[in-house]
C-alpha cells in the first residue's frame, strides 16, 4: 500500500501531538518544530510532483484500506494531475505561512501553530480523498481550525467573532446538503468511491444510470454538490462570507484561506461534480447557462466592487472572488462541451486554464496577502487613503508588490496570464459570447490593480507627515529578512511559470485529457 | 428454568441492587465523614464495574424470557451497558460537586445506582406491567434526585415540576396500557401483537387511542416536543449531575421502552394509520422547537435541555425510518442505537465539564465561560470536542450518529422521510450556532482580570478523558460500534 499520500497528510498531525506536549512558554521551540514538521510534507510533495508518471496519467500513488466496512466506506486515496499541484501548493503556502507567522504571532503561540497544522492536515486530506465520506470528513475537519484562527487572532475592529461564525455556518449549510446527496448516491449505486462513480455511471455501465435515471433527483443531487462547492469557491451570490473572513483573519490565515481553501471548492467541482454529473453540469452550463452567468457575475461584479474598496485587505479579498470566477468560467465552458464532438480540445484547454488558475491564484493572492501583512504590521492601518509614495520610501517592497500585482492582473510573462488565456481561449470556442464578456473582467481587474493598489499605495510623493498622522508615528522600514524569505519563493514561481509554464501545464493536461479525451 | 439460570441472567440487576443497598448501609453505619467522601462513591463505582462485567458476560446469550415479565436479549443488554456507564460517569463527576452543597451524599449515590437499576429493568421489560413498574421506579428516583438540593429553590422547583408533569404523563401512559389490556385481554407484548393481528375493526381503533396515550408517556421520558415542557426548568434547577443523568440515562430508558413496545406489541400499526406519522410530526416539532429556542438561552444547562429536545428529534428519525427489508447497514433503528451510544459519550463529556466548572466557580451561565481556555485548557478542549460532536462535525461520534439516522431517512426514499432529513440538516446548521457560541466564549473572549485557574480533581479528569476519547474513537473507528448496534436489534428479525 503506497504510503506517500498518507504520510503527507498525517505528518502535520504528528506535529500537532508534539506541540501539545511542549509547554506553552517555549515559544521558540514550538515555532521551530512547527516549521520543521511542515517542511516534511513540502519535500514529499516535491517528490510527488517529480515522481508522477505523466505519460501514464490517471490516478497514481493509490492506497486503499477498509475503514468502515459495514457501510462500504474505505480509506481510498490517490493523486493525479489535478491534485498534485494543489498538494504542492498547500505544502508550500503552509510552510511559508508558518515562517511568516513565527515572526508576527506573539499571542497564544502554541494554539496558533497547533491549529495551523491541523488545518494543513484537513486540506491535504481533501485533495487526496477518493471516497466521498472520507472527502466529506476532511472537508468539514478543515472548518474548525479556520473558525478558531479567524476568531482568536482577528483584529477587534474587523469583527472576528462575526466573520468566523459567518464563515463556519455558511460553509456548513452548503456541506450538509452535499451530505444528503452523497447518501443518495450510495443508496442508488452501493458505493461511496469517487473513481467508481466517475467511471462506471451511465446507461450501459456497471452502476447503471445516475440515481436510477430519475432526472429530478439527479438535478437535485447535482445542485446540492454544486452549491456546496460554489459557497467555497466562492461563486456569486454565495460569496458574502468571504470579505469578512479574509479581512478578519490573521495574515497567514488569509493566505491559507485565499490560497487553498477557496480551491477546495473548485477542486470539488472538477473531481466530483463534473465527472459524476456531467449531463446536469452540461445542462446548466449550456442549455440553461446559469453557471456561466454566475461565473461572469463573479468576475465582473467582484472586479467592480474591488474598485470601490478603500481597505487594502478587503480589496484583495474581493479580487479573489473575481479571479475564482475565471476558474468557474473555465469549468462551465468545459462542461458545456461535454459530449459535443469536435470540442474536446477546447474543453481540455478550458479545464487546463481553470486548474492552472487555481494554482496561480494561490501563489499570487497568497503573495498579495503576505504583502498586505507587511504594510499592516508597520502601519496598523489598511486604508488606501493613508498610503502614497511608498515606491520611494520602501523600494524593495514596491518591487515585490509590483511583480505580484502585475501577475494578478494577468500580465504576459508572469504566471497569471497563462491561466486566463487558456480559460478564455477554450471558452471562446465553446461559448464565445460568455468569453467575450469575461475579457471585460480583465480590463476592470487591470483598472483596480493599477489605479487603486499601485497608484494609491506606491506612486506619487511620500509624505512623512501624512504617514505619521495616519499611523501615529510608526516606523516605516522596508521588507525584513523573514518577509523576503516568505515572498521570494512565490515571486520565483510567478516568474518561472509565467515564462515557462510547461511543467505545470503538462501535469494538469494529463488530468484534462483523461476527462475529455482530447489532446 | 432453574434458580441458578435465572440468577445468572439477572446478574447485572442483582449486582446493582446489592450495590445500592450496600452503599446506603455503609453510608448510614460508617461514622467517619472525611473517609466516607471518597470511599462510598468508590464502592458504588466498584459495584457498577461488576455489573458492567456481568452485562458483557451475558452478551451472546440468545433472547431468553426470564420470570415471564422480562427478557434478556442483545437489545436489553445494549441499554443496560449504556445505563451502567452513564451512572458510573455521573458519579465520577458528582463527587466534588456535592461537597458543600448537600450533606446527604451517600443516599445520592445509592439513588443513582437504583435509577440505573430501573433503567436496566426497563430495557428488559416485555410485559406492560413491568414496563410501567420500571418506568415509575425510574421516574420516582428521578423526582427525588431532581429536587435533591433542599435549600435551593430552583432544585425544589425542578423536582416539583418534574413530579407533577411526570405523574400526569404516567397516568396517561397507564390509561393507554389499560386500553390495550381491555382490547386484547393480555399484558404480554408479544401476545398483544398476536391478538391485535387477528382482531376486528373496533380493536384497531382502541389500539390507535392506546398508541397516542402511550406515546404521550414515552415522549415525556425522552423529552420529545410537545411533551417537553418540564425539561428546561427541571434540567436547569436540578443538581447538574442529575441533569446529566436525566439527559442520557432517562432518555435511553425512554427510547428502549418506546422501541420495544411499539415494535413488538404495535408493530402492525407502523405503516398505515399508526405511530410513524405521529412520530414524524413529533420529530419535526422537536427539532425545530428545540434548536430555535436554544438560540436564546444564556444558561448552559437550559441550553442543553433544549438541545436535548432536538437530539431526541434526531434519534427518533432513526426509529421512524426502518426499511422494508432487513438488509444493508442502514436499518434505521440501529442508527438510533448508534446515535444513543455516541450521545452517551457526547452528553456526558459536556456535562462532566459543566459540572467541573460549576463545582469550581458556582456558575452555569454561558457568559461566565469566557476565557476558559486560559483558566483550564482541559475543560475547554473537552467541551470543544463535545460541542462539535453535538453539532455533528465529522471526526466525532455525533456526526456518525446523524449520518446513520439521516441515511436511513434518505434510504427509504419517501417524500416524508426526505423532508424529515432536510429539516434535520437545516436545524443542525442552526444548532451549530449556539454550540459554537459557547466555543466563542471559551476561546475568543478573554477571562476577567482576577480570574483564577480552575483545578479539576482527578476523578473528574478521568471522566473527562474517558468521554472525550470515547467521542473520538466512536467518530473515527466506528466499525465495532456499528456492529454492536446492528447485533442489538436481532429482535427486529422476528418482525420481518
Low-confidence stretches of chain B: none
Domain module tally of chain B: 2
**Count of individual helical segments of chain A:** 22
**Approximately how much helix is present in the residues of chain B?**
over 70%
Which class best fits the helix and strand makeup of chain B? mainly alpha
Number of strands of chain A: 2
Q: How would you spell out the order of helices and strands of chain B? A: HHHEEHHHHHHHHHHHHHHHHHH
Average pLDDT metric of chain A: 92
Rg of chain B, alpha carbons: 22 Å
Distance between the termini of chain A: 32 Å
| Shape annotation of chain A | globular
Largest interface: A-B, 34 and 32 residues
Alpha carbon gyration radius of chain A: 22 Å
Average pLDDT figure of chain B: 90
Could you estimate the helical fraction of the residues of chain A in percent? Answer: over 70%
Overall geometric form of chain B: globular
Provide an overview of this structure.
The complex is a heterodimer of chains A (519) and B (496). Chain A has a domain at 277-519. In chain A, 75% of the residues lie in helices and 3% in strands. Chain A has 22 helices and two strands. Chain A has helices at 4-21, 27-51, 83-104, 109-128, 132-141, 143-153, 160-189, 194-199, 215-232, 241-248, 251-276, 278-287, 290-307, 312-336, 344-379, 390-393, 395-409, 415-430, 432-458, 464-471, 481-499, 502-516, and strands spanning 60-68, 73-79. In chain A, strands 1-2 form a two-stranded antiparallel ribbon. In chain A, strand 1 and strand 2 (73-79) form a beta hairpin. The longest helix of chain A is centred in the last third of the chain and has 36 residues, at 344-379. Chain B has helices at residues 3-9, 11-29, 33-58, 74-98, 105-124, 128-146, 153-184, 189-197, 201-222, 230-237, 240-265, 275-294, 300-320, 333-361, 372-375, 377-391, 397-412, 415-443, 458-476, 479-487, 491-495, and strands spanning 64-66, 70-72. With 496 residues, chain B is mainly α. In chain B, helix 12 runs parallel beside helix 18 and helix 17 (397-412) packs parallel to helix 19 (458-476). The longest helix of chain B has 32 residues, at 153-184. In chain B, strands 1-2 form a two-stranded antiparallel sheet. Classes of the chains: A mainly alpha (519), B mainly alpha (496). Chain A binds chain B through residues 67-71, 111, 133, 136-137, 139-141, 143-144, 147-148, 151-152, 160-161, 164-165, 168-169, 172-173, 176-177, 179-180, 183-184, 186-187, and chain B through 329-330, 373, 388, 393-395, 399, 403, 406-407, 410-411, 413, 421-422, 425-426, 428-429, 432-433, 436, 439-440, 443-444, 478-479, 482-483, 486.
Amino acid at each position: 500500500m503506497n504510503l506517500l499520500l498518507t504520510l503527507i497528510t498525517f505528518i502535520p498531525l504528528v506535529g500537532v501531538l508534539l506541540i501539545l506536549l511542549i509547554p506553552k512558554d517555549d515559544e521558540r521551540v514550538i515555532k521551530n518544530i512547527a516549521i520543521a514538521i511542515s517542511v516534511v510534507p513540502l519535500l514529499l510533495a516535491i517528490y510527488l510532483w517529480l515522481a508522477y508518471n505523466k505519460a501514464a496519467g490517471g490516478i497514481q500513488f493509490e492506497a486503499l484500506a477498509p475503514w468502515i466496512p459495514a457501510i462500504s466506506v474505505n480509506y481510498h486515496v490517490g493523486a493525479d494531475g489535478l491534485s498534485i499541484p494543489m498538494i504542492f501548493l498547500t505544502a508550500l503556502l503552509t510552510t511559508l505561512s508558518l515562517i511568516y507567522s513565527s515572526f508576527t504571532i506573539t499571542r497564544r503561540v502554541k494554539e496558533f501553530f497547533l491549529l495551523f497544522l491541523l488545518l494543513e492536515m484537513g486540506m491535504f486530506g481533501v485533495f487526496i480523498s477518493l471516497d466521498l465520506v472520507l472527502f466529506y470528513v476532511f472537508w468539514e475537519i478543515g472548518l474548525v481550525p479556520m473558525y478558531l484562527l479567524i476568531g482568536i487572532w482577528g483584529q477587534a475592529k474587523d469583527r472576528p467573532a462575526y466573520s468566523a461564525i459567518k464563515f463556519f455556518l455558511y460553509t456548513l449549510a452548503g456541506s450538509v446538503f452535499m451530505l444528503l446527496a452523497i447518501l443518495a448516491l450510495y443508496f442508488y449505486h452501493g458505493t461511496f468511491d469517487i473513481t467508481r462513480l466517475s467511471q462506471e455511471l451511465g446507461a450501459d455501465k456497471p452502476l447503471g444510470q445516475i440515481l436510477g435515471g430519475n432526472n429530478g433527483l439527479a438535478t437535485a443531487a447535482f445542485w446540492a454538490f454544486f452549491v456546496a462547492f460554489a459557497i467555497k469557491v466562492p461563486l456569486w451570490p454565495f460569496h458574502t462570507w468571504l470579505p469578512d473572513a479574509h479581512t478578519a483573519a490573521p495574515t497567514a490565515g488569509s493566505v491559507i484561506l485565499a490560497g487553498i481553501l477557496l480551491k477546495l471548492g473548485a477542486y470539488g467541482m472538477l473531481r466530483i461534480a463534473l465527472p459524476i454529473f456531467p449531463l446536469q453540469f452540461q445542462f446548466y452550463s449550456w442549455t440553461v447557462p446559469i453557471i456561466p452567468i454566475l461565473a461572469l457575475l463573479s468576475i465582473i461584479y467582484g472586479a467592480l466592487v474591488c474598485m470601490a474598496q478603500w481597505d487594502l485587505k478587503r480589496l484583495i479579498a474581493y479580487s479573489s472572488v473575481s479571479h475564482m470566477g475565471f476558474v468557474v468560467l473555465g469549468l462551465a465552458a468545459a462542461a458545456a462541451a461535454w459530449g459535443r464532438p469536435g470540442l474536446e480540445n477546447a474543453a481540455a484547454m478550458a479545464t487546463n486554464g481553470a486548474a492552472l488558475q487555481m494554482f496561480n491564484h494561490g501563489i499570487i493572492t497568497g503573495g498579495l496577502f503576505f504583502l498586505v501583512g507587511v504594510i499592516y504590521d508597520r502601519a496598523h492601518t489598511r486604508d488606501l487613503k493613508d498610503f502614497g509614495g511608498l515606491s520611494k520610501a520602501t523600494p524593495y517592497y514596491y518591487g515585490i508588490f509590483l511583480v505580484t500585482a502585475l501577475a494578478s492582473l494577468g500580465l504576459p510573462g508572469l504566471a497569471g496570464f497563462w491561466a486566463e488565456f487558456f480559460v478564455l481561449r477554450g471558452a471562446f470556442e465553446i461559448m464565445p459570447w460568455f468569453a467575450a464578456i469575461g475579457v471585460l473582467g480583465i480590463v476592470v481587474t487591470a483598472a483596480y490593480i493599477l489605479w487603486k493598489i499601485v497608484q494609491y499605495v506606491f506612486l506619487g510623493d511620500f509624505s512623512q507627515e501624512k504617514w505619521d498622522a495616519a499611523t501615529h508615528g510608526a516606523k516605516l522600514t522596508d521588507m525584513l529578512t523573514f518577509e523576503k524569505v516568505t515572498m521570494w519563493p512565490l515571486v520565483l514561481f510567478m516568474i518561472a511559470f509565467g515564462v515557462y509554464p510547461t511543467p505545470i501545464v503538462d501535469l494538469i493536461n494529463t488530468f484534462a485529457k483523461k476527462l475529455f479525451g482530447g489532446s | 428454568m432453574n434458580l441458578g439460570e435465572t440468577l445468572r441472567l439477572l446478574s447485572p440487576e442483582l449486582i446493582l441492587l446489592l450495590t445500592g443497598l450496600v452503599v446506603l448501609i455503609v453510608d448510614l453505619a460508617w461514622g467517619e465523614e472525611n473517609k466516607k467522601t471518597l470511599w462510598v462513591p468508590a464502592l458504588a463505582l466498584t459495584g457498577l464495574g461488576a455489573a458492567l462485567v456481568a452485562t458483557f458476560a451475558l452478551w451472546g446469550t440468545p433472547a431468553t424470557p426470564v420470570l415471564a415479565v422480562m427478557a434478556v436479549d442483545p437489545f436489553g443488554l445494549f441499554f443496560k451497558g449504556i445505563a451502567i456507564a452513564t451512572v458510573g460517569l455521573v458519579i465520577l463527576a458528582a463527587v466534588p460537586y456535592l461537597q458543600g452543597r448537600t450533606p446527604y451524599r451517600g443516599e445520592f449515590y445509592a439513588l443513582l445506582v437504583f435509577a440505573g437499576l430501573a433503567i436496566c429493568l426497563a430495557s428488559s421489560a416485555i410485559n406492560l406491567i413491568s414496563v410501567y413498574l420500571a418506568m415509575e421506579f425510574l421516574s420516582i428516583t428521578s423526582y427525588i434526585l431532581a429536587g435533591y438540593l433542599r435549600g435551593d429553590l430552583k432544585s425544589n422547583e425542578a423536582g416539583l415540576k418534574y413530579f407533577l408533569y411526570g405523574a400526569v404523563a404516567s397516568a396517561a401512559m397507564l390509561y393507554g396500557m389499560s386500553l390495550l389490556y381491555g382490547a386484547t385481554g393480555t399484558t404480554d407484548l408479544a401476545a398483544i401483537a398476536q391478538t391485535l393481528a387477528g382482531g376486528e375493526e373496533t380493536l384497531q381503533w382502541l389500539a390507535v387511542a392506546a398508541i397516542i396515550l402511550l406515546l404521550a408517556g414515552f415522549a415525556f421520558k425522552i423529552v420529545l416536543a410537545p411533551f417537553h415542557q418540564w425539561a428546561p426548568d427541571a434540567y436547569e434547577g436540578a443538581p447538574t449531575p442529575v441533569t446529566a443523568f436525566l439527559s442520557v440515562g432517562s432518555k435511553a430508558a425512554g427510547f428502549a421502552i418506546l422501541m420495544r413496545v411499539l415494535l413488538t406489541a404495535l408493530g402492525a400499526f407502523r405503516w398505515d394509520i399508526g405511530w410513524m406519522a405521529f412520530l414524524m410530526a413529533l420529530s419535526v416539532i422537536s427539532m425545530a422547537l428545540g434548536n430555535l429556542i436554544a438560540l436564546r438561552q444564556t444558561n448552559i444547562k437550559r441550553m442543553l435541555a433544549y438541545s436535548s429536545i432536538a437530539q431526541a428529534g434526531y434519534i427518533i428519525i432513526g426509529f421512524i425510518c426502518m426499511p422494508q427489508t432487513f438488509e444493508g447497514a442502514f436499518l434505521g433503528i440501529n442508527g438510533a442505537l448508534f446515535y444513543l451510544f455516541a450521545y452517551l459519550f457526547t452528553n456526558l463529556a459536556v456535562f462532566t465539564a459543566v459540572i467541573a466548572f460549576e463545582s469550581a466557580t458556582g456558575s452555569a451561565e454561558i457568559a461566565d465561560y469566557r476565557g476558559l481556555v486560559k483558566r483550564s485548557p482541559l475543560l475547554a478542549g473537552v467541551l470543544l470536542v463535545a460541542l462539535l460532536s453535538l453539532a455533528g462535525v465529522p471526526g466525532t461520534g455525533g456526526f456518525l450518529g446523524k449520518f446513520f439516522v439521516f441515511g436511513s431517512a434518505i434510504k427509504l426514499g419517501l417524500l416524508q422521510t426526505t423532508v424529515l432529513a432536510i429539516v434535520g440538516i437545516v436545524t443542525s446548521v442552526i444548532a451549530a450556532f449556539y454550540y459554537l457560541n459557547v466555543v466563542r466564549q471559551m476561546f475568543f473572549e478573554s477571562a476577567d482580570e482576577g480570574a483564577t485557574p480552575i483545578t479539576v480533581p482527578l476523578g473528574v479528569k478521568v471522566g473527562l478523558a474517558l468521554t472525550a476519547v470515547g467521542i473520538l474513537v466512536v467518530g473515527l473507528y466506528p466499525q465495532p460500534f456499528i456492529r454492536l448496534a446492528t447485533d442489538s436489534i436481532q429482535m427486529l428479525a422476528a418482525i420481518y
